[in-house]
């Protein structure tokens, strides 16, 4: 709705005041009453005509002027004049970027899933003449065009594509809406899909599906890890089979680590002892020396700490 033109109101009151002062100047004459009333009436008529002819448009406004029902021109921004009664101003059109929210409720996707989609449209009027002359209400028209375009796009799109490819849907919507509104002098700048709402039951099912998929991937990764470990053990076994010394050292290291970390009894199968040559005099002597050396190092560290 157009706001009050304060400049026109100011001109109106100035003319009334000037007319009143002129009428008051005849107060000393014999014809004061008649002349005063004539001056007041003339001042009132002049004030109405002149204030009605003065219009002021803001920087972001364009004004459509009709003369006797025919398009005359676009006015604004700033001060302009019209001829009262003959000229009319039916539209004050905002040429700034305007945002319009629209939605499609319970619309079926290509795979027959009902969804609610909310989106925002950014648009502006490029040709005020077309927006005023070619459509009765361009704001309502672009709102309905956006909703119908959104429903068309939803009906042609799978739910998975809609959830993952919002940018693609936005670009397609922008193209469709722009084609529909271009004859009205309106340019669609962009369309942003805010939210896609699906039924709660379907949301739970999709959540379970995602969890199952993650569990499957975890099991696959675990199985692949075990396969790689088994391959490495096979490679190690080949190395130890060709190098008894390396096997012996590895066995000694395993026992040493176990005895070092916790003071418990380690039970080793006799077959393992025989295969790793831990039961021989050499193996026992090496293990004893290893433990004695470790104890000696710890004793030295404790003495240095006490000092």
The major beta sheet can be summarized as: 3 strands, antiparallel
- What name does CATH use for the topology of the largest domain? Tetrahydropterin Synthase, Chain A
- Per the principal axes of the C-alpha atoms, what is the gross shape? elongated
The mean pLDDT is: 81
Strand-residue fraction? 15-25%
Residues in helices, as a percent range: 55-70%
Q: How many separate domains make up the residues? A: 3
Q: How far from one another are the termini?
A: 93 Å
What is the strand and helix layout of this fold?
Blueprint: H1 6-24, H2 32-53, E1 54-57, E2 61-67, E3 70-75, E4 78-81, E5 87-94, E6 98-108, E7 114-125, H3 128-133, H4 138-155, H5 159-164, H6 166-181, E8 186-197, H7 200-242, H8 244-261, H9 270-275, H10 281-306
Antiparallel strand pairs: 1-4, 2-3, 2-5, 6-7, 7-8
Helix pairs in contact: 1-2, 4-6, 7-8, 8-10
Please outline what is shown here.
The chain is α+β, with helices and mostly antiparallel strands and 307 residues long. The chain has helices spanning 6-24, 32-53, 128-133, 138-155, 159-164, 166-181, 200-242, 244-261, 270-275, 281-306; strands at residues 54-57, 61-67, 70-75, 78-81, 87-94, 98-108, 114-125, 186-197.
